[in-house]
Amino acid sequence: MRAVWQLWLQPFRQMLLGALLLQLAWLVGAILLGCVPATDVRFAGVTGTLLAFGAWFWFIVLGLCLRGLCRPENFLLPDFRKRLAVVGVLQIAQWVLLPMLAAVLLGVPHAVLGGAAILLMAAIGLAASSARYINLLVWGLFVLAGWRPGLASQVAMAMIASPWAAPLALLLATLIASLSLRATLRIEDRETDDSPLENAQLGRSRARNLDGTPARRGKLGKRIGAIFDGTSQRAMQQALARYRRKPSWHLRMVLVRRLLLPHDNPQAIALRLLLVAAIVTFYVVAVMHRQRFNAAMVGAYAILLGLSRFPQLGRGMRQMRPNLADLYLTLAPPTRADYQQTLLEALVVLVPVTALSTVAYTGLGIVLTHAAEPLRMLLAAAIVSVGASLTALAVHLIGPEGSFGRGLVDLGVTLGAMAVYWGGYWLLGVLGHAIGGGVLLLVTLGFGLGVWTSARREYLRRPPCFDAPLAG
Predict the structure, then answer these.
(1) Are 231 and 267 a contacting pair, CB within 8 Å?
(2) pTM of the model
(3) Share above pLDDT 70 across residues of the chain, in percent, rounded to a whole number
(4) pLDDT tens digits for 314-337?
(5) Residue 116: which of 155, 153, 160, 158 has the closest Cα?
(6) What is the phi-psi region of residue 162: left when phi exceeds 0, alpha when psi lies from -120 to 50, beta otherwise?
(7) Taken in order 211, 215, 221, 223, is the CA torsion positive or negative?
(8) DSSP assignment of 420-462, as one string?
(9) Of 2-6, 69-73, 374-378, which has the strongest mean pLDDT?
(10) Torsion angle, CA of 73/74/78/80, rounded to 10 degrees?
């Protein structure tokens, strides 16, 4: 039982905050389930929806943990598959069987169908953690449901009334789970490792397990990864050739950047913008029918997407510590502070890259949504992205070591940046573009530079660390 207990604790050890929130959602759903009147179909539907989405996200986390556990060497452990099966039964009992049994005993309407639906959502979540096309399929279904809410409601009511809905959901859940587990439990060679500092936006680093090991990729992912690898290889060769022809401090810094940030060269940035633009275009076209769509939200989403680079940077810098010892010996800096300064100079390029990406995403959203005040949105997004990028880079360089602390810092910076964007958007509307933009620039850039200066001073004071990071 000790091995089963350790396997059950994996989500809490690898994603503590998310695991606690999802378990809290299950507890709230269980409490609400006890309060459901026997004839209130709507309240029962709300409770079932909460449990279904909780099971979906929980089994996504379980799938991510399972991807990291299912390494070839772990299958040599005694009864490894059997203990995984026991943990799976316990998870299904918690999220599906116990709520369904309680609903049946309490006389909740459509209890069996609700349990089958929760099991189907759990199977989809498990499959989505290992197959991206499942995520795209579910996302597409939600888009279609939002496009034709009346039709989606009619389909849902017809399924509720049909006696074949529960067996069909059970059969579909079994099929999806079996296909997902067959791929996950298959013993095959580990994927080639790659740089932890590769850009996570549509690059390979997003397809990594929670423990940092590379996950298995499909054919499309391998093709996209090969294209990104080709751009980074060409950029490195060009930088090396220029440095050999005319050695200088500037070209030396470019070499360090190409080494540390392989997917942040101009070609890769342009390719990433094109891929994101294609996905965003499809999404915006799909939801443009909504009359209440607020175009100003595009800037907030653009800032959110731009800042997603920095949490991965913080994790990558910690994973890269043992490898950075080779860089230290190669550079042979006169002092430790000179080496730290070199890293700072190399990484600060992410600030203009993030600002450029945010402005590009915002501009694309303006074109697609036909925004009424494009200059106001662009100005607010550009100003806020610079200050938020400086702040995010600073806190992720000297921030907490543990995953829980990093998660809190990331959440605080992201929510703060989006709140400042909305405040800046309002300020530009009240004071005008010139005065409001000046005030917003003074506040955001002043705060960002202050945080960056303090973090830079602290980073230069610290000695270089080449020890592997502790787990967690």
Answers:
(1) yes
(2) 0.68
(3) 83
(4) 888 888 888 888 889 888 899 998
(5) 160
(6) beta
(7) positive
(8) HHHHHHHHHHHH-HHHHHHHHHHHHHHHHHHHHHHHHHHHHHS
(9) 374-378
(10) -140
